[in-house]
Every structure is written in C-alpha cells, then in structure tokens.
Specification:
Blueprint (H helix, E strand, L loop, with lengths): L1 H24 L19 E10 L19 H7 L3 E3 L8 E4 L3 E9 L7 E4 L25 E6 L5 E7 L2 H5 L3 E7 L8 E10 L14 E6 L16 E7 L7 E4 L5 E6 L2 E8 L1 E4 L4 E6 L1
Parallel strand pairs: 1-4, 3-8, 9-11
Antiparallel strand pairs: 1-2, 4-6, 5-7, 7-8, 9-10, 11-16, 12-15, 13-14, 13-16
The structure holds copper (II) ion (CU).
Length: 290
Amino acid sequence: MWWFKNLIVFTIFFNLLKISISQTKDDDYHECVRSCADNAFSKKVCRYEFFAKELSSPMSIHNGSKNKNESMNQCEIISSNSFLGINGKSPGPQIEVCLGDTIEILLYNRLGSEELSFHWHGMRQKNSAHIDGVPMVTQCSILPFGGFRYKLKPENIGTYMYYAHIVSQQGDGVYGSLTVRGPQNDRSLEKILLLSSRPSIPLSRYSYLYLPTPRELLLNGQNNGFILRVHYGTKYYLRLINANAYNCPVLLSISGHDFHVLAIDGNSVEPTMGRHVISFPEFTYVIARK
Ligand SMILES: [Cu+2]
C-alpha cells in the first residue's frame, strides 16, 4: 500500500501547492469581492487576517530638515526603524463587501512593545461600541503579540476606512479602505483614491513635543504618481478617502472635469457640483465625474 500513502502525500502536497499559488497570484483576491446581487442567499461572512507590523523594507526618505526641534540623530532613527503596515503593506488590504455581509477581522498585534486597536470610521456601532476602537474607553487595547476579533455588520452602503486609533500608528501607515456596495453599485465604474501622507521620521519612534511635518503626500500609497485608467466619455464614481493623520485638508481637482459630491462618510448628500473637492482628514467622499 506504499503507493496509496504516497498518493495521499502527493495529493496533500499538490493541494498545498494550489493554495499557495492562488494566494501568491493575487494578494488582494477575496471571495467577497463580487457584484452585489439583491439576493439574501448571496450574503457572505467575509473573513480577514490582519497582521499589523513594521514594514520589512525601510523607506528611502531624504532627511533635509533644519527644524530646531528635530535632533541631529534623525538619520540613525530612520535607518534603524521602518514604517508600519498591515500584512506587509500600506495601505492595508482593501475590504470590499456587499450590504448584508458580515465582516470578521482577526487583528494581530505584531508591533513589538506597542498596544493597538482599530477604528472603523463611518460604521455605525449600534450595540457594538466595544469594537469602535477607542483604546481604554470602548475596548481594552490589543497587547503586543495578542489578537482581537472585530465583527462588523454594515448597515449602509458607502465608503469607509479603518485605521489604528493611536494616531502615530495611523500616521506611520496602519490604515486602509472599506467599501460596502449594494445592487446599484457597479464595481467596474468605481475607483478608490486613498490620500495619506508620510512623515520624515516614523511617528511611533518620535519622542519630541512637536510633530515633524509630513514629507510626502501619498495617493494609494504611492509618492511618485498614481495612474488611474479610465475609458473616455464614461462616468466614474471615485471613492475618495482621506486617511491623513495630520490635520491638513487636501484640495483635489482633475484638470477640465467637474465633480458631483454624492456622499460623505457613508451618508448621501444633496449632489453638489464643483471643480474641486477639499477633503478633510478622516472623511470619506463619493464623487462622480465625467
Ligand atoms: Cu470615526
């Protein structure tokens, strides 16, 4: 029966190989990303595992600051510490679900000696204040090497975001987008634009009274431009998220195009037309442009 045992081993090995291939093929693949049919039987439980930790590759940031409050040993700090992310990247994985789905996130704290908790901005937390993420107010912090299961049941379609509630961790890269769609939303006609910034020194490592000014404005995590491919003449919905940890509004315009602002923080608003949008930190917007 040696061949039978070998067959089992081979089958298990082959299946493991298939799993690892499908995982490496597309990091962002998730079975919950789909078109949202108006059908109660299609509702899913969408599970994610998030590991918050330092990004393995250090950022190349030029430190040219002459600020008196920033010490001479900044270069050492930059070279020995990196910024933060979730599952090895910042922004973290996009969560995209349909209304009626349940979202379960198992969040692991791998930040060394720091405590952690996540806030789900814009999500109503009726009877679930304990997962709103305010450390030591609505939940106990997740201790180093610990984990916590967040369970969300979105009540409305909309554009949301998640981030570490400790602002220095958010500023260092612990944030991401959360989109809830309904049957009326066509994913192929939507683009997510996530604005954020990166300081010259990781904020979690910064021990001075005055915060360093952000050095780079990031669009979907990129500091050197982000290409958004569109078809000429087609109307798109832009899910604009300002995940900036700094209290600094960002003005967004697209040359030669008007916007309609349709929703803010998951709530519909009277459609307002304009040539630019001023986006404030920790707000999300849905805008249409043609
Ligand atoms: Cu909030």
